[in-house]
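Handout, section 4.2: multi-component inputs.
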Amino acid sequence: MYRLSEEHAIVRDLSEAIAQAGIKDLAEKTDEEAVFPLQNLRSISDAGLFACEIPDEYGGAGLDTLSQVLVIEAVGKACGSTAEILASTAAAVDVINRYGSEELKKKAFSLISSCRTAALAFDEGIADSSANVIKTECSGNILNGKKSRVFSVGYNAVYIISSSDGEKKHLNAVFSGNGGLTEIPYELQMGFRGCSLGEIELKDCRTDEIICTDDFIEYARNANRIYHAAASIGMAQGALNAAIEYANERIQFKRRISEFQNTQHRIARLQSRIDAAIQLLRTAASKKDNGIDCTRNAASAKYLCDDIANLSTYESVQIMGGFGYTREYPVERMMRNARMAELYGGTCEEQLDLIGGMIAVK
Amino acid sequence: MDFKLTAENLTDIELYKDFKDNVLINYARQMDTDESTDLDLLKKAREYRIQSIPFDKKYGGLGKGFLSAILCMEELSKVCPAFPGIYNVCEVVGSSIDSFGTDEQKEKYLTKIASGESIAAFAITEASAGSDSASAKTTAAADGDCYVINGTKLFITNSELADIFLIGAQCDVGEGRKKISMFIVEKGTPGFVIGKAEHKMGIRSSSTCELILDNVRVPKENLLGTYGKGLSIALKGLDGGRVQIAAQGLGIAEGCIEILVDYLKSNADANCRKINNQAIQFEIVDMQTRIEAAKLLTYRAACLWDTGEPFSKEAAMAKLFATALANEIARTCFRLMGPEAGSKKYLMEALLRDAKVTEIYEGTNEIQKLVISGLMGLSV
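Output:
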């Protein structure tokens, strides 16, 4: 079980304040005009909470994974795109912190501390990220291959890339500006429109560092699951909050619609599920912070948080009726983003395969 | 009991499929991007006489009845639900005039709708009157040989395409009480303005706007049906509309499954999800099974409408079931398709966005539940 310390509570409240102050206002533009939300990242950075797991000695806040989860949750309530970018960056920072050399940490963290993003680049083609075959080749320190579904393409300071030499799997760091690296943003998709999703192509790309050749994959994936799950559960709560606000203002049949039993029960069901998913997510984060294997909890949290995000955003649109369906209100955007969440940061099927494999087969 | 579609129904479906596969699909993505209806497409649909399907031959329709109209809705919704939605509204307005109109109104307006010459719009909803339509604020007051209408309507489908508008307004019925009457208002009537267009999550191919009525004078003969009984006219029109929306949901669900299965089969060699996976096949089977159940509900409601029997409850149940199903299936297909589902290369993401509105318009699904519980006599 997790417990929030006083410090955690401060991080949570501060993140909440930033999210509700400026980030919320920019969320519509971020989505509609597909703007990479640099301004949002800057305001989080100004509060000292951007990539907050970077250790003190490298210019970061030196906070734990649970704190980072709280930041992403809070931001997710206001802007899904910004939260997903934070999640992607957090996962890369986490992996560098765990496996990187002193030199890599110094270089990467000094860039990220000045509000540059970073990303894991593990996925290839249209395969689920659980696919065990890595096609990107690492020969000596030269990389060749293509990675898909990468966040913040064109904005990242550094990519953390999985590769294989045919026998062993490698984890590589490649900094932007590397001549062998081509960043190719996708055409806009249904959701995550501010995230600059895309591919990166590696052509005889000299890796800046082979971080490790250990079994890093599960660690990196767990980190990825936890941070992206935090973005999802933030969206779930953000949509429900918007629906509750609307239900208290909207009058039909001479009553606020929040006074109808149907509305109340619907909201109660959603909030109960969100609360349960948050417990699981924070437990996974806390286990990770304490060096306890969190794989099952992390996978379940990713699956469940995405699922609740879908349900909550979808029902919030319904509570808000025709208004909820228009782009003047935030919930339709949140619903589009929630649908995307099941495809990014580890797909739903990947989590089910993993959990099922762990517990169903004796 | 006969659960089979007739040979004529099946021939009709072939024609609708032809229009869908050879015409409509070529416009679907672009119209979604442009957030407007393509006028060339409207012309082509007129050649196929889509709008005329349900209307009586004596008014210039095809006389194929309502079942054939919803089969068309279902087929076309597999690629672009917003487009047949245009004709649903024409059907609601046309059938209201057919049921409640005078011979003159039928001659003047129904013939134009039935023949496909004019598109129609139906306006009840207002900013403060959504589910609670009786609380509408738009008013109509008698003045000489006219009614003068004032107010603002919201979320009106076909606003920018229609020539004929059926509009609800509150009228004095004595003792200070007001009740809704329905009026036929022509495009271009002085004081009648199309307001701002809504930007929606989905169904972007059809226009949804505000209507502003500022001292709009309509001749008294444009009152539809009985003065003060407009709400029951509107509700009867919506019964038919609800079956249409059920069919729209069905089409969306079937369209999603088609895209999913095609996609998984054509990517069978890639390092990706396999159509042969048990979990995926079982989910597809579950979805298809429930679609068949929704079809029976929907077709039954349409048949009752065609034979002139009461069908309010069946219409509401069909809409409730089929549209909830459409959303569930759209989400499942989107997830099963995997990483590329959100891409604009496929219509999957558009259908997913379109699906949500089916639970909202033509009476939210909460309203369907109120209708059904009323007809079941649940309250004591």
